[in-house]
User: Fold this.
Amino acid sequence: MSVTNKKSRLHYVSGFLLIIGWVGFAQASPRFSPQEIERGAYVAKVGDCIACHTAPGGKPFAGGLPMPLPMGTIYSSNITPDPTDGIGKYTFEDFDRAVRKGVAPGGKYLYPAMPYPSYAKVTPEDMKALYAYFMQGVKPVAQPDKPPTMIWPLTLRWPLAIWKWMYASDDHAYQPDPKQGAQWNRGAYLVEGLGHCGACHTPRGIGMQEKALSASGADGSLFLSGAKVENWYASNLRGNGVGGLGGWSVADIVQLLKTGRNSTGAAMGSMTEVIHHSSQHWTDADLEAVAIYLKSLPADPNKPRAPQPVAPAPQPDLHSVGSLAYAQHCALCHQNDGEGAAGVFPAMASNPTVESRDALNLIHVILAGGQTAEVKGIHQFTMPAFASVLSDQQVADIATFVRSGWGNSGAAVSASEVAKVRADIAKTH
Amino acid sequence: MKNSTTDSRANMTVHTLLAACLLAGIAAQPVLAQTASAPAAPALVAKPKPTREVPFKAPNLAALSHEPNGAEILYGYRLMTQTRKLLPHNVGAAMNCTSCHLGGGFVPHSSAFVGQNVLYPMYNGRAARVVSMADRINGCMLRSMNGKPIPKDSREMKAMLAFMAWMSKDVPADAKVKGAALYKISTSIKPDPVRGKAIYAERCAACHGIDGQGSKNAKGEYVFPPLWGPDSFNIGAGMARTYTAAGFVKGAMPVADSLHPPTGVGRMSASARPPEGGAQLPRGVERSEEGGSMSDQDAVDVAAYFSHQPRPDFPMSIYDWPKGGAPKDVRYCLVSLGNCTPAEIARAPKPPGGK
Assistant:
């Protein structure tokens, strides 16, 4: 409790500082109208700039968040309007070039951890508002950027130009599809552009590039088809019945993005941060546009089709080792019939996380636990971490039981799969 | 509702009398034993007080198949977790044993069953006599379940006793299990039920309902028990007392509030344990060894609020603590204290032993 309290207090404090900063600067140099700055603040929320550009416990947008990469750790940069350490001296053209094209003043190429291939689609109007916000709506912080912990020649930036030429050469703002309605186009703009959903949900290729930046083109069916990120599996957001959004309605998607949960389950892992910082603040119209766009994505043909539905068994048999372990460790919350409790404990039956082809999220959440997204006005629930009390075999028994119980169709999980996830999680914490 | 309460009370009266006769038979009073209709049983002798503490470690339900009476134990587990469904004639409330003994008795600080069996027979101040485990279970049936006792020679009682024995199978006879009992809350903490109401709305209502009505699943079955109202535990239940309820709240509520597993199985052996940090997450709330995420004051306030809401009566309770020693949070009159009105005495069944 104290941790959560401290954290939310921190948010209040940072929000307060933000307001002070906003007031102070708006008065100091009234280059932008309050409306423009406010609009820019919303663009920044949708773009979720704060998630990467704020270190844990750090000042908003002052950077310093470590991002471990295979070749070393890079740190996000200070994007407050501090003239020395931040971006205070950026002209609009500098700002636009950095955000949308990945090139900072002086020709320095940015690491593509910055999702500029997606941000390239942001419209000039949104970029202008964003610029107004970062120049006058954000409090400047004098905090120099941390250099990456890489050795030469990995520290050279020019190879990033080649990367950009290979994978992110198209830097045109979003072009509406005339065959689609305004709502769909708004959704596509938010998902492919500002919201940069593909950064986590699209599989990456050999050069760490997203294999598709939109649903069109040769690899379009891979767009948002699911990918492994930080030992979680960022779900397939396409129309697949199993493991995708095929079974969700527009309202289900909106509810998840707004509250962190819906009737089938709760967001876990890094998605809780996205909901906390970003999507809970989106307008209902924008959330609906996103849901309509996502629902238009056909199923990824490379993933298995939904099997014939099986009649759900009303009770676990309480005879298999897995069902008994479930009864002892899980049924207190998720209930003996696997139905959980609406709005509190996710149901196991027909839960895409439970029966997903890749059992990574299920194994991860059993081992490491997790918290539902921190959303205003909604109670945050915690799933305990069972890593210290359950063996790999016990986790495998439970996972196999819930993946095959109550009509679920997920394949069995082995102890060695659990051992691998356990080792991977331990490496990152 | 009124009718059903009256009916069940009438039924209860008959059964209570029967139970009283049975109890009289085993009471440590030779005079009563001779006059009772039930066959005389040897007087119960209380176990000596435990001399040491052992860590909380529940047995493994998944290993039940290795037990010769595994099926009976499993039936006992089912009875504990689906009490209302399996014993509809004995359970009067929308409660299961597991409503208070979380997870079927596997969870620390919620009157866990681990180690209970070795403590019985035990002297019980409320009854002022030595009670067996079966007596104790039936005490719950009358009060927390607002129902009727389970016959001691029934298959159900035997299965529950087998389950209780199995839950203590690894506990030495002279030991007490650390963290099995409810968290002890100081009765010097003054309750503030107004503050408690606000805490209830914030921390409890999501599951137990803003009006304490509990919540049901799509099939209409209770998932979270009602904390007051006609389907809740009666005033004779321990949970209807402020500091007992506060101990439960402090140690075990709310669930899903901590990264610490609630099932109290103890840590794995060193060889099977994951690398250090394997269970850590950057965010999260840790439940302390002693209790949960609420302060003692929070727990007392919220407990005072919900325990004092309207709930079924238990007229017989006026004969509790016949030899004194009643805790100060008992919320009904006691004959032994001489503070009952003639009306309260008139509507109660005869005291145990027919005095």
Summary: Strands of chain B lie at 52-54, 122-124, 129-131, 175-177, 215-216, 222-224. Chain B touches chain A through 56 residues (CB under 8 Å).
